[in-house]
Design goal:
Helix content is 68%, strand content 0%. The chain is mainly alpha-helical and 195 residues long. The chain has one domain: Ferritin (Up-down Bundle). Helix 4 (99-113) packs antiparallel against helix 5 (116-138) and helix 5 packs antiparallel against helix 6 (144-168). The longest helix is centred in the first third of the chain and has 25 residues, at 31-55. It is globular and about 40 Å long. The relative contact order is 0.15.
């Protein structure tokens, strides 16, 4: 019996060794790529909210939140330029790093122009995606300076999420407190980082 199994083991051994040295399917992405994705999302949020604010000038979140998104973008760009020189141009109106971000931007802009309700729903989806992606970076246990930036951005995104949820509920006053919206898992959200 052992003689019958040995040939199969000899064939299987290279495959097992190869699998042991390959990167796991669910492996986390490197910090630089995650940062570039976050920069893309902040750039997208700024542009979307600015455009939708022009389309729906009476929606208060679109008048206030773009300023915060610009600060978020600048904080990420400053950190990324210091730690990964040459990886980003740092221009708010620059090109997206990932083609999927451009696709998502185009989709959400078209949806958001349809009505104030649709625009607020776009805001909810974007902030949920942003929070999920920030959490993905935080799971990597980044160094303290980056962790502090990301935690600040996450709090801001929670506040923005709460503002858009209030808008959907018929409110829309000034941001107060943390967002308490139900988070959709990243699996249910479109990804901005596909190459």
């Amino acid at each position: 019996m052992m003689k019958k199994i040995l040939p199969y083991l000899a064939l299987a051994l290279p495959l097992v060794l190869n699998l042991a040295h390959s990167k796991p399917t669910g492996a986390t992405t490197d910090i630089k790529t995650l940062l570039l994705r976050q920069i893309d999302e902040e750039r997208m949020a700024y542009r979307l909210y600015t455009q939708l604010g022009e389309e729906h000038p009476n929606m208060r979140p679109f008048q206030n939140i773009p300023h915060a998104e610009k600060r978020h973008f600048n904080a990420l760009v400053d950190y990324t330029k210091a730690h990964f020189p040459g990886s980003t141009d740092g221009k708010l109106e620059g090109d997206f790093h990932f083609e999927a971000t451009q696709t998502l931007y185009d989709k959400w802009l078209a949806e958001g122009k349809a009505s104030p309700q649709a625009a607020a729903q776009v805001g909810v989806q974007l902030e949920q995606l942003d929070i999920a992606d920030i959490d993905e970076v935080l799971v990597q246990k980044p160094e303290p300076a980056l962790a502090q930036i990301l935690n600040n951005l996450r709090r801001g995104s929670e506040n923005h999420l709460a503002a858009f949820e209030r808008q959907l509920a018929g409110g829309g006053g000034k941001d107060k407190g943390q967002g308490k919206g139900k988070m959709k898992g990243r699996a249910n959200m479109p990804s901005c980082c596909a190459k």
